[in-house]
Amino acid sequence: MVCTRKTKTLVSTCVILSGMTNIVCLLYVGWVTNYIASVYVKVQEPISEKKLEEDKGDTLRIIERLDHLENVIKQHIQEAPPKLEDNPAEAFTDSSLFAHWGQELSPENRRLALKQFQYYGYNAYLSDRLPLDRALPDLRPSACRNLTFPESLPEVSIVFIFVNEALSVILRSIHSAIDRTPAHLLKEIILVDDNSNNEELKEKLQKYVDEVNAHKPGFIKVVRHSRQEGLIRSRVSGWRAATAPVVALFDAHVEFNVGWAEPVLTRIKENRKRVISPSFDNIKYDNFEIEEYPLSAQGFDWELWCRYLNPPKSWWKLENTTAPIR
Question: Which residue ranges run through the membrane (predicted)?
């Protein structure tokens, strides 16, 4: 191609300007890109493994604290008595405690009853107002009432385990044991206090024990732990303090019925290696009424939770409701 000198110069100038324009554009684009990156994207420097572990630990601790805080809030919401609204008579009606009991109570007494219920898990307010020797329905199968037992049976030591139980519940357990166990079979009662912090279980309980022991010295023994040992060690403490050939271990929120001891002691007399569990009915937590439970065996699932089990076919075939359930 033939070009004049002027044309060559013009072309060269255009190429140079074009190149400079491209460079300027690239610089501008680069500057804009870098600016955007600096605003929206913070490029992190490489982090050491130690730093990552520390950050991970901090995160887990924060999550744990949040979980704990959430549980505390939930517990507070569930346990805190609702505030009185415009109509005080309707206060606390959403609590299961008042589903079948306490509708006639004043708002103030409802508040007190609910507070005790939240602390003990049962209606301690009502328990404090029930007599220690209240009557109980005899729910034994009719065949059991007609049984006869050997005259010479081994004595029994009854051990009650408790921590922060309501005093009236403990006293009713003791009183029913004394009242409904033949005197010649009940050697002693042992109370194992697994380090309760309820002041009522110290001076007032000791006063009751002293009154009973004034008529029958040493009949009630009290074992107090200096620290909380748990259910199994508490039972061992009671067993060690017992002096009778048979030891019966119970929670301190029970009530004994007539004829409970003789069949138990008879089975053990037949074979001293036996471990016997009597049949339990239910004391309803809200109104303390007695609810009959069907005859059943006691067993455990793989998580070691106690379960009431339907008797096996071999037991039903005996057609004898007085027979023990293995």
Answer: 9-31
Domain boundaries, the chain: 142-293, 296-325
Rounded CA separation 133/171 (Å): 10
- Which residue from 261, 255, 251, 311 is spatially nearest to 281, judged by alpha carbons? 255
pTM of this prediction?
0.71
CA–CA separation, 24 and 30 (whole Å):
10
Summarize pLDDT for 245-271 with one digit per residue, the tens.
999 999 999 999 999 999 999 999 999
Q: Which of 261, 263, 234 is nearest to 248 (CA)?
A: 261
Average pLDDT for 36-60: 51
Determine contact, residues 37/43, Cβ cutoff 8 Å. yes
In the numeric block, which tokens belong to residue 164? 């922060």
Query: In CATH, which of 3.20.20.70, 3.90.550.10, 3.40.50.970, 2.40.50.460 is domain 142-293?
Result: 3.90.550.10
Where do we find the tokens 């009940």? 186
What is the Cα–Cα distance from 101 to 287, expressed in whole angstroms? 6
Q: How far apart are CA 172 and CA 186, in angstroms?
A: 16
CA-CA distance, 223 to 141, in Å (whole number)? 37
Q: Judging by DSSP bridges, how do beta strands 282-283 and 290-291 pair with one another? A: antiparallel
Say if residues 201 and 224 touch (Cβ distance below 8 Å).
no
Nearest to 254 by CA among 174, 193, 164: 174
